[in-house]
């Protein structure tokens, strides 16, 4: 929370313009997805720098050349999405839990990104979200899904990846991109405003030929293992 307040304080002069522009861009009939996303992609790096955070990114060359893929990162905290928006140039879509859909600014970002909102307690609604995502991925949209279902609250350790999170990608036969986030939790969940480097590593994708025949739980475990190994490699080299 302290770092969020620092970001807001250091952006006070420009903040009114940003808010006005965000509300304007919520008009999805007037502004296309590239225009809406480009604005977020432009201002997020500014906000991050004002929060005394640096993003170290690798593996952008691993992203499929054609859109229509699903990224599966580990989930550490609220900062995760900002790391993606800064480093991922093409428009992306997030999946958010229903509890945040009416939160100020998050509500507007949901509209700008045309995010899918999921109610994990409603099986029928969850299935509808999976069908929507399958259709949209087939149409060439790129998604982020946090397969743990919630932030781990265990630093750089992972929770179990849920197999159901992979069904939309499997149904669409789309590339699956593992993404490793390191130290993202330190941005907003530690109470510190010390200078910080957050790592985001886009890892080699798994194409349909790589995972066809797998069960969703098997694919979930494979992606989780890939991310866990990358985090282990990066953190052990620092130590």
Quickly list its features.
single chain; 239 residues; alpha/beta; Glycerol-3-phosphate (1)-acyltransferase; 10 helices; 7 strands; globular
Descriptive notes:
This protein has 239 residues and is α/β, with parallel strands linked by helices. The chain has a single domain, classed as Glycerol-3-phosphate (1)-acyltransferase, CATH 3.40.1130. The chain has ten helices and seven strands. Helix 5 links the parallel strand 3 and strand 4. The mean pLDDT is 94.
The CATH class name reads Alpha Beta
CATH architecture name:
3-Layer(aba) Sandwich
Output the CATH homologous superfamily.
Glycerol-3-phosphate (1)-acyltransferase
Spatial order of the strands forming the largest sheet? 1-7-6-2-5-3-4
Taking the sheet with the most strands, its summary is:
7 strands, mixed
* Shape, per Cα inertia axes: globular
Structural class: alpha/beta
Mean pLDDT reading: 94
Low-confidence stretches: none
- Number of helices, counting only DSSP H or I runs of 4 residues or more: 10
Strand segment tally: 7
The name of the CATH topology is Glycerol-3-phosphate (1)-acyltransferase
The share of residues in extended strands comes to 5-15%
Distance between the termini: 28 Å
C-alpha Rg (nearest Å): 17 Å
| Secondary-structure element order, N to C | HHHEEHEHEHEHEHEHH
Helix-residue proportion: 40-55%
Q: In the residues, how many domains can be counted?
A: 1
């Amino acid at each position: 929370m302290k770092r969020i307040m620092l970001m807001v304080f250091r952006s006070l002069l420009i903040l009114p313009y940003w808010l006005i522009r965000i509300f304007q861009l919520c008009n999805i009939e007037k502004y296309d997805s590239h225009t809406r996303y480009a604005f977020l992609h432009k201002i997020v790096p500014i906000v991050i720098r004002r929060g005394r955070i640096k993003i170290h990114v690798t593996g952008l060359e691993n992203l499929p050349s054609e859109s229509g893929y699903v990224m599966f990162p580990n989930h550490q905290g609220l900062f995760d999405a900002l790391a993606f928006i800064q480093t991922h140039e093409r428009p992306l879509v997030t999946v958010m839990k229903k509890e945040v859909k009416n939160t100020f600014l998050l509500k507007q970002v949901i509209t700008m990104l045309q995010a899918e909102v999921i109610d994990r307690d409603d099986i029928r609604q969850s299935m509808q979200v999976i069908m929507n995502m399958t259709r949209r991925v087939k149409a060439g949209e790129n998604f982020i899904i946090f397969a743990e279902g919630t932030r781990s609250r265990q630093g750089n350790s992972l929770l179990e990846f849920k197999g159901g999170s992979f069904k939309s990608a499997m149904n669409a036969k789309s590339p699956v991109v593992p993404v490793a986030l390191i130290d993202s939790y330190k941005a907003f969940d530690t109470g510190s405003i010390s200078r910080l480097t957050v790592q985001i590593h886009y890892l080699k994708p798994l194409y349909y030929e790589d995972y066809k025949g797998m069960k969703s739980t098997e694919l979930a475990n494979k992606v989780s293992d890939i991310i866990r190994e990358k985090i282990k490699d990066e953190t052990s080299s620092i130590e």
